Amino acid sequence: xxxxxxxxxxxxxxxxxxxxxxxxxxxxxxxxxxxxxxxxxxxxxxxxxxxxxxxxxxxxxxxxxxxxxxxxxxxxxxxxxxxxxxxxxxxxxxxxxxxxxxxxxxxxxxxxxxxxxxxxxxxxxxxxxxxxxxxxxxxxxxxxxxxxxxxxxxxxxxxxxxxxxxxxxxxxxxxxxxxxxxxxxxxxxxxxxxxxxxxxxxxxxxxxxxxxxxxxxxxxxxxxxxxxxxxxxxxxxxxxxxxxxxxxxxx
Length: 251
Prior knowledge:
Layout: H1 11-25, H2 31-43, E1 47-48, H3 52-62, E2 66-67, H4 69-78, H5 84-96, H6 106-115, E3 121-126, H7 131-139, H8 167-173, E4 177-181, H9 184-196, E5 201-206, H10 231-245
Parallel strand pairs: 1-2, 3-5, 4-5
Helix pairs in contact: 1-2, 2-3, 4-5, 5-6
C-alpha cells in the first residue's frame, strides 16, 4: 500500500517543502512521500506511511505522529471490522510483499505454515519459569528472584508448588499434534513420530532448571548494584570489580 493523503498545494506546504527537501532527500524520498509528510505537517493530521524513516522524520521534525498498515489492520480487528483470520492473512501478505518493520507473532507464523501446508517440529522445554535469566540473577546475588513460576507459600513468599501451565494443550488448541515425554528414550521416539506426522508437532519435555551447561570460559560484563543490604549482592559486586580489572577492549 502506498502513502496516500489528499492535499492542496498551499503556500504553507510549498514553504515547508522548500525547507525540508534536503532532509527528506537524504532518505531518497519521492515527491509522493514528500507530499504526504508535508501535507500531514500542514494539516496537523497523522501521517499514514509504511516508510518507518519517513514517519520518524515527521515525528522528530514536526511532531507529527504516524501510522502504518499493520496499525490500521490492528485497529480494524479490535473494532470488529475484520476477523482474526483476515488480520493474520493480511500480516502474512505484508511480509510476502517485502514490507519492512512488520511485527510477526506466533499466530501469524502458524497461519502461514497452515496456509502453505508446511509443518514444524517444535521442541518445547518447560523449566517452570526463566532458568537462564535465573542463573544470571543468581550470579549477581539476587537469588533468581521472580524467575520461577510458583504459587505463594505459607511463608508469604513465592515458595509454593509450580504453577500448572499446560503448554501442550495450548499447542493443541492451535491445531498442532502434541507429544509429552519424560526422558531421552521417549524423546527419541517422539522425534520419529513427528517426522511421520503431516502437521506441526510440539514435543514437550520438562527440564531441571538447575541442570545447566558448563562455563564458556568468558566473562559477561553485567553491572551489579553498588549498594545493597544483601550479603550475596555485596559479594557479587566485589567479584564484579575484580573481573573489571582484567577487562580488555579490542575495538
